Amino acid sequence: MGFSNKTVIVTGASNGIGRGVAKGYAQSGASVVLADTDEQEGLRYAEELKGNGHEAMFVKTDVRNEAEIRHLMDVTLKAYKTIDILINNAGKALFKPVYELTLAEWDDMMNTNLRSVFLCSREAAKAMRENETGGAIINLASTRALMSEPDSESYAATKGGIVSLTHALAASLSNEKITVNSISPGWIETDHYDALREKDHQQHFSNRVGKPEDIARACLYLTAAENDFVTGVNLIVDGGMTRKMMYEE
Q1: Domain residue limits at 130
Q2: Is 155 a catalytic residue?
Q3: How many domains would you assign to the chain?
């Protein structure tokens, strides 16, 4: 799977899963555009990637803002001439009792997690359809699109919406050689992996909690040119956690 001539945009790339995905593409030879509101860490990480011999740049972007999304695409095209891959990773979580969740909070979750996926995909696709080889879009959903715990209504709704939006976009963009898939991560530990307990790992068939690089490898697979037969799918990457029956002893 070669990415040496590809330009990849990763939203929410300054930290967490997005950071790991950006690193995966950079190490695979792609030119990586990091988009995030965390300017300090984004700039620092872009310099770190470049210091390791990779091609990277940071563009401060609030994905709730349509004008900033268009700016992101314009800057990318000016720097690298093409947009080949888009990773819609930016998002936030909110867990709040249903009786206390405000309309403003609900709307902010929709705009941050779901509407942004539509806007970024639409704007990136305008560039991808000009490519001879088309392009690829990955939307980061969640296993919470399929299962829930209390007080997660706004988050679950956005992630379920991403899964549905993914196959709708796959249908709409199919004639332009643009594949669209989603990934639903399970438990991906981004900060304190060494502090996890044995019983945390044992909740998975894989016998371990996930890491950002697990999601990066899934993105690389789904966006590889030779995998253009795979589109419209939601790939669950959770170490089998959502399939493991758990009983209290």
Answers
A1: 7-241
A2: yes
A3: 1
